[in-house]
Amino acid sequence: MESIIKQIYAQAKLIGACPRFTGQEKTLDDIVALFTSMQGMEFCIKYHFPNIATFRLFKPYGVDKQYGIYIDAGTITLKNPARAILIGRTIATIYCDECEMHDITLLHGAKAVVNASKWAVVKTTVENGCNLIRSTSENAIIL
Question: Within this chain, do residues 1 and 71 fall inside the same structural domain, yes or no?
Answer without folding.
Answer: no
